[in-house]
Fold this protein.
Amino acid sequence: MAQYLLSYRDRVGARPDKFYKTTLFSGQHLMLGLNCLEPGQVQPVHDHADQDKFYAVLEGEGVFTVGEEEQVAGPGIVVWAPAGVPHGVRNEGQQRLVLLMGIAPPP
Amino acid sequence: MAQYLLSYRDRVGARPDKFYKTTLFSGQHLMLGLNCLEPGQVQPVHDHADQDKFYAVLEGEGVFTVGEEEQVAGPGIVVWAPAGVPHGVRNEGQQRLVLLMGIAPPP
């Protein structure tokens, strides 16, 4: 069943220069991945004109920007960035920020 | 920011007759929701010919069927059910099973 199930903890990673991204699963309609931000790392605000996206906070805490608004979010928070709405996240905390991320359709 | 962020814990629910489903966010390309199964409840095996789907276990433990395989999964496990692959889940545990679920494109 390795084909269809995984533990996100086995896929967490870090890069010194830029936040870490990895794909967990990808199909014709949806791509799922992890975004891992070390303290101080940032995903700059950007948008996807024709893709809906979400983040679910798994570990750590992030400062999320979506549209005109900004909010700190920790584990259990789900963030929605629909097509065309600018979004980004900063890790201003002391621990790694781990996000489950999905985007549809896939890039 | 209530528009773009929520805590899944505020949206957990239960039904006596059938597992509980609720939509968290829905756009043109992706729908995100919760599936909550009380002990003994089942989502029968089914498929979606033209939609990719995932579950992420948030609380509890489920017995997942995907394709020909079956596996018990708890918090931190991500389950992938691509278009056309039969999938379902049973709660054979003692506590509520809470799943973040996404499907693309939305039903």
Observations:
- DSSP finds no helices and ten strands in chain B.
- Chain B has a mean pLDDT of 96.
- The radius of gyration of chain B is 13 Å.
- Residues 27-69+103-107 of chain B form one domain.
